[in-house]
């Protein structure tokens, strides 16, 4: 699986060079000009944790036109490893995006001071963004294996919208159930949210393995 | 003689197009080159994809190195080198990056061997594959196929679209590969001249069915073509006719056992026949029956 993840790494770096450069300069700009405000930090988090994996998932999706996908099947790799490598790569991109955001947030707090109302707000933001990204991939990647043609780019956007809607729905439910949640309750919600998103992501991986193992390519 | 690859009664049907390969049976003996020929759309790639498990066959058996290969049998795929007709590798990679990827996949990947092939073929290590010409891409694919101690090469139209000099160079490399006793090649092509040069066996597929499976020498030396008038054609017994094709002023008749036919029909001239012409007569002519 190492070789397959290395393959994805080269693909992401070659296709997303401009985005990565954009992320770098955006981060530097926020540190210089906008670190006192919540919104630039929130935007940076969204670009890194949602935007970057979103674009990466479109690049890594199964594509019947791409003959390299067919060639990979002749290599000494199992179909389940091919699928798992895609999911692992997406998990890594979400992790990298999160780490870059953590670094920026901490650096910004050191330079400009704490920009948010409460510390728990930062935790909730990260939990929600990571959750959206994981659920988006959990919806989109199996679909791309079921129906690998150009329509899947539209499906990726729909997957993103659905995952955002699910997250907002969960937040709305908590707000309805608990009128003034304490920091501890919000921390439990953030943790539960993350655990749920990870579970959905892992189930989606198993489902996609099952889909791909039965397919002609 | 042991066979590296054995196909028995392999069937695969595409529901959408209704195209099917039917009862495909042939083998690739150890140490030999089998040429797999057929016109475009005959079923060559479908057969190759069934062999490699890229597509699932409906029925039949395919044994590679004595075993049926499933998705789990990665040890079998370690010993198979594959070359497809075009764009084997992503354009954003360089040869060096490709080696980095494949070195982590193949347990017997040989970086030194790969670099030697790159030097021999004049391929730049650090240039993106998108800047390679078609010939360079093919050479790269062959370099990869030969750099992990493979025992069986499967080439699907690997020489299509290449100039004669490039094709000759690649054929020389393939001949070198098969010099080792336990190395074999299955080479599909519609360029029959390439197969005439290097193949030991010829398997001909047409409309999804194998209609010819012979040694190359038998085809070249024992098969022949009679070019005769319509009158003379009616004097030829139907059991002697494999296939016939009417042209403007003559009828071309494909026959077997050239020496016997020459003695039998002394007034007719029996010419030697190329694989090209055999293919043409079998596809476009009126065939008598399946040729065994």
Automatic annotation (TrEMBL), chain A:
<feature type="transmembrane region" description="Helical">
    <location>
        <begin position="12"/>
        <end position="33"/>
    </location>
</feature>
<keyword id="KW-0472">Membrane</keyword>
<keyword id="KW-0812">Transmembrane</keyword>
<dbReference type="InterPro" id="IPR025699">
    <property type="entry name" value="ABC2_memb-like"/>
</dbReference>
<protein>
    <recommendedName>
        <fullName>ABC-2 transporter permease</fullName>
    </recommendedName>
</protein>
<feature type="transmembrane region" description="Helical">
    <location>
        <begin position="123"/>
        <end position="145"/>
    </location>
</feature>
<feature type="transmembrane region" description="Helical">
    <location>
        <begin position="39"/>
        <end position="60"/>
    </location>
</feature>
<dbReference type="Pfam" id="PF13346">
    <property type="entry name" value="ABC2_membrane_5"/>
</dbReference>
<keyword id="KW-1133">Transmembrane helix</keyword>
<feature type="transmembrane region" description="Helical">
    <location>
        <begin position="157"/>
        <end position="178"/>
    </location>
</feature>
<feature type="transmembrane region" description="Helical">
    <location>
        <begin position="94"/>
        <end position="117"/>
    </location>
</feature>
<feature type="transmembrane region" description="Helical">
    <location>
        <begin position="184"/>
        <end position="212"/>
    </location>
</feature>
Automatic annotation (TrEMBL), chain B:
<dbReference type="InterPro" id="IPR027417">
    <property type="entry name" value="P-loop_NTPase"/>
</dbReference>
<dbReference type="InterPro" id="IPR051782">
    <property type="entry name" value="ABC_Transporter_VariousFunc"/>
</dbReference>
<dbReference type="GO" id="GO:0005524">
    <property type="term" value="F:ATP binding"/>
</dbReference>
<dbReference type="GO" id="GO:0016887">
    <property type="term" value="F:ATP hydrolysis activity"/>
</dbReference>
<keyword id="KW-0547">Nucleotide-binding</keyword>
<feature type="domain" description="ABC transporter">
    <location>
        <begin position="5"/>
        <end position="232"/>
    </location>
</feature>
<dbReference type="InterPro" id="IPR003439">
    <property type="entry name" value="ABC_transporter-like_ATP-bd"/>
</dbReference>
<keyword id="KW-0813">Transport</keyword>
<keyword id="KW-0067">ATP-binding</keyword>
<dbReference type="InterPro" id="IPR003593">
    <property type="entry name" value="AAA+_ATPase"/>
</dbReference>
<protein>
    <recommendedName>
        <fullName>ABC transporter domain-containing protein</fullName>
    </recommendedName>
</protein>
<dbReference type="Pfam" id="PF00005">
    <property type="entry name" value="ABC_tran"/>
</dbReference>
């Amino acid at each position: 699986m190492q070789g397959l993840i290395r393959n994805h790494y080269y693909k992401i770096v070659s296709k997303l060079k401009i985005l990565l450069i954009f992320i770098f300069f955006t981060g530097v700009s926020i540190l210089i000009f906008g670190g006192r405000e919540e919104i630039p930090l929130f935007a940076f988090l969204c670009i890194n944790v949602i935007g970057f994996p979103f674009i990466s998932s479109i690049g890594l999706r199964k594509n019947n036109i791409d003959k390299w996908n067919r060639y990979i099947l002749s290599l000494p790799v199992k179909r389940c490893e091919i699928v798992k490598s895609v999911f692992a790569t997406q998990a890594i991109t979400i992790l990298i995006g999160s780490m870059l955001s953590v670094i920026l947030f901490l650096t910004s707090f050191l330079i400009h001071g704490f920009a948010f109302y409460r510390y728990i707000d930062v935790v909730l933001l990260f939990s929600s963004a990571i959750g959206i990204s994981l659920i988006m991939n959990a919806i989109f990647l199996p679909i791309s294996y079921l129906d690998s043609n150009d329509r899947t780019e539209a499906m990726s956007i729909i997957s993103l919208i659905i995952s955002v809607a699910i997250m907002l729905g969960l937040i709305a439910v908590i707000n309805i159930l608990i009128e003034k949640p304490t920091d501890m309750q919000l921390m439990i919600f953030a943790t539960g949210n993350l655990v749920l998103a990870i579970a959905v992501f892992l189930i989606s991986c198993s489902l996609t393995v099952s889909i791909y193992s039965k397919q002609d390519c | 003689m042991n066979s590296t690859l054995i196909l028995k009664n392999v069937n695969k049907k595409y529901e959408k197009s209704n195209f099917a390969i039917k009862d495909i049976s042939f083998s690739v003996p150890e140490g030999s080159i089998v040429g797999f020929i057929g016109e475009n759309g005959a079923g060559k790639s479908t057969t190759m994809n069934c062999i490699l498990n890229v597509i699932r066959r409906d029925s039949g058996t395919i044994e590679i190195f004595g075993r049926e290969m499933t998705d789990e049998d990665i040890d079998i795929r370690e010993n198979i080198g594959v070359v497809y007709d075009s764009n084997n590798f992503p354009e954003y990679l360089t040869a060096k990056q490709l080696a980095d990827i494949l070195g982590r996949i193949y347990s017997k990947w040989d970086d030194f061997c790969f670099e030697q092939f790159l030097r021999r073929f004049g391929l730049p290590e650090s240039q993106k594959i998108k800047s390679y010409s078609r010939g360079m891409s093919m050479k790269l694919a062959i370099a990869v196929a030969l750099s992990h101690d493979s025992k069986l090469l499967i080439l699907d139209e690997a020489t299509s679209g290449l100039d004669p000099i490039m094709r000759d160079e690649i054929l020389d490399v393939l001949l070198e590969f098969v010099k080792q006793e336990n190395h074999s090649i299955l080479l599909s092509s519609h360029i029959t001249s390439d197969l005439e040069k290097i193949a030991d066996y010829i398997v001909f597929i047409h409309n999804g069915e194998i209609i010819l499976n012979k040694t190359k020498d038998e085809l070249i030396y024992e098969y022949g073509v009679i070019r005769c008038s319509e009158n003379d054609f009616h004097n030829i017994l139907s059991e002697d006719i494999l296939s016939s094709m009417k042209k403007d002023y003559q009828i071309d008749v494909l026959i077997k056992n050239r020496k016997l036919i020459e003695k039998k029909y002394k007034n007719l001239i029996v010419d030697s026949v190329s694989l090209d012409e055999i293919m043409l007569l079998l596809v476009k002519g009126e065939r008598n029956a399946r040729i065994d």
